């Protein structure tokens, strides 16, 4: 996996101003300042009187809180639910940033996530999602053996043709 992709997955240093965050999420700057006062979100410390700026994880949290509010939850319950989702996402991110070998999209249809090595024999687990059929396929291959994308395309073409015949 390229270092650029890994850095993007692990990078939290993107900063968004309060005005941009307000526009992106449909929440007034005043409400964002209130959430910060309550300790629900945190801005990046800057000079006094400088506009507030927020890191990417906070932007995501604000979006989640807003979504839960729109679903009818109270502010405190929305924050609680957002914190739970963020905790889960953090654990998923830790696992995947260490295990993710590659991520490829083939023919704008197949998403292939390669994880590994997953055992003492240095096998790589390929998780393939077909956007057309919404099916997942798993394949465990030796590190030295590349995934056969042509076979995947041929099987998918065959499956699509079979569906059209019925």
Automatic annotation (TrEMBL):
Top-level taxon of origin: Bacteria
Source organism (scientific name): Candidatus Enterococcus testudinis
Transmembrane found in the keyword field: no
Keyword Cell membrane: no
InterPro entries per record: DNA-bd_dom_put_sf, MerR-type_HTH_dom, MerR_fam
Short name of any one Pfam family annotated for the protein: MerR_1
Name of the protein in question: HTH merR-type domain-containing protein
GO molecular function, one term: DNA-binding transcription factor activity
Segments forming a coiled coil: none
Taxon lineage: Bacteria, Bacillati, Bacillota, Bacilli, Lactobacillales
Domain (HTH merR-type) ranges: 18-84
SUPFAM superfamilies: Putative DNA-binding domain
Entry keywords, A to Z: DNA-binding, Repressor, Transcription, Transcription regulation
